[in-house]
Specification:
Elements (H helix, E strand, L loop, with lengths): L1 E6 L3 H12 L4 E5 L24 H15 L2 E4 L4 E5 L2 E5 L4 E9 L3 E3 L15 E2 L2 H4 L7 E5 L3 H10 L5 E5 L9 H8 L4 E4 L2 E7 L6 E6 L5 E5 L2 E4 L3 E3 L29 E3 L11 H20 L1
Parallel strand pairs: 1-2, 1-6, 2-3, 6-17, 8-15, 9-10, 9-15, 10-11
Antiparallel strand pairs: 4-5, 5-6, 7-16, 12-13, 13-14
The protein binds NADP nicotinamide-adenine-dinucleotide phosphate.
The site of NADP nicotinamide-adenine-dinucleotide phosphate has 25 residues, from helix 4.
């Protein structure tokens, strides 16, 4: 029996584990993919208090190392659901079950797709959702980045170090992401902004060859020759498997306020997977701490 079972090994989940374990609670993190979550693919994090600059992968590795050294158990398994047996929460994976006194859902979010023709077929053949993972394959080539948030801006900056030309395609004329990155991109000779523009179609036989774009102001369609398209248009939650256990909002986020308390006693939600205004590394870490302390209080009765 674990005191705290944490589903998801991103910043929120690992922070919760550190707080839970340090409070003397037997804690396990169950992660379906790679420990670290979204921030792992951030080339450079510059807005975490006390750390002027760190790569997302180094930040995540440090968190995991800190948790493991404290004695947190970690397993890599895909969670398929949770059930409550007289107050004991049983986390199910394909081959195992984990009985826990409390559970913290820290499942994060997954990449939103554009939903345009050939996007799925050419994923891995020029269509990518991770510039830091795939950028080096496009050395000396022309690529596009789609999106106007911090991820798209960071991706464009990262790719400009490898690629001949980087087109940053955004559907509006104002960026949502950090202004200081926009200013740095404006100084780059090989970065071009294509604003008020959406992607209509990705064209390519075996790999991406060009994009069909639509300028929303003029209504005109035009072609853009690129061999890669990096899609950074935000994220969507993946909480369907918990829908019978905790209440979700209309967009699939777990209904929980700043106290991380869900509709189900003893189950808490931390980080990007819950309803919240600001989804940042700092707020994910904050949620991890809040949820772990709430779980400790719940266990104590
Ligand atoms: P985001 O802030 O939600 O931005 C998504 C962008 O994609 C927006 O510009 C949006 O356009 C655009 N978009 C959404 N759907 C689209 C569609 N169907 N077609 C075309 N464009 C579409 O996502 P994010 O950039 O991944 O950032 C997520 C969170 O992580 C944010 O809070 C961000 O600040 C944070 N973050 C932090 C760091 C860091 O270093 N600390 C790094 C990356 C991200 P509109 O603007 O028109 O809505």
């Amino acid at each position: 029996m674990y005191d705290i079972g944490i589903i998801g090994g991103g910043t929120a989940g690992m922070t919760a584990a550190i707080y839970g374990q340090r409070a003397g609670k037997k804690t396990i993190i169950i992660e379906g993919g790679t420990f670290g979550g979204q921030i792992t693919s951030s080339p450079n994090v510059e807005n975490y208090p006390g750390i002027a600059s760190v790569s997302g992968s180094e930040f995540s590795m440090n968190l995991l190392d800190q948790a493991v050294k404290l004695g947190v158990e970690t397993v890599t398994e895909q969670v398929t659901g949770i059930r409550d047996e007289n107050g004991v929460k049983v986390i199910c994976t394909p081959g195992k079950e984990y009985a826990c006194r409390s559970v913290i859902l820290a499942t994060g979010v997954t990449h939103r797709h554009l939903g345009v023709p050939n996007e799925e077929r050419l994923t891995g053949a020029g269509v990518s959702y991770c510039a830091t993972c795939d950028g080096a394959f496009f050395r000396g080539r022309d690529v596009a980045v789609v999106g106007g948030g911090s991820t798209a801006l960071q991706d464009a900056e990262f790719l400009s170090n490898y690629c001949r030309r980087v087109y940053l395609i955004h559907r509006r004329d104002e960026f949502r992401g950090e202004d200081n990155i926009v200013k740095r991109l404006e100084q780059k000779d090989n970065v071009e902004f294509i604003l008020n523009t959406t992607v209509q179609e990705i064209i390519g036989d075996m790999s991406v060859e060009r994009l069909i774009l639509n300028n929303k102001k003029s209504g005109k369609q035009f072609k853009l020759e690129v061999s890669g398209i990096f899609i950074a248009v935000g994220h969507i939650p993946q909480n369907e498997m918990f829908a019978e256990t905790v209440k979700l909002d209309g967009n699939g986020f777990i209904l929980a306020a700043e106290d991380c308390v869900t509709s189900h006693p003893g189950i808490f939600a931390a980080g990007d997977c819950r309803t919240k205004e600001v989804r940042q590394l700092t707020t994910a870490a904050a949620d991890g701490a809040v949820a772990a302390l709430a779980a400790c209080k719940y266990i104590a009765g």
